[in-house]
Sequence to fold (59 residues):
Amino acid sequence: MSESYAPPRAAAEPTGHPAVDAAVQAMANAAPLPLPAQIAQYEAAHRTLGETLATIDEA
Fold:
């Protein structure tokens, strides 16, 4: 099985929330990484997005 390099993709349209934008970009950047590194990036993004959603509920 051969792995090909894929450059990081640009994230979706900016949300206007820096933490959310950074999490989305981190997920896009994780694509070419080895699987364990991808998982770490996705888990970190999940935490960030969960924390952000929790603050919305508090508002």
In short: Residues 3 and 22 are 26 Å apart (CA to CA). The chain has a mean pLDDT of 84.
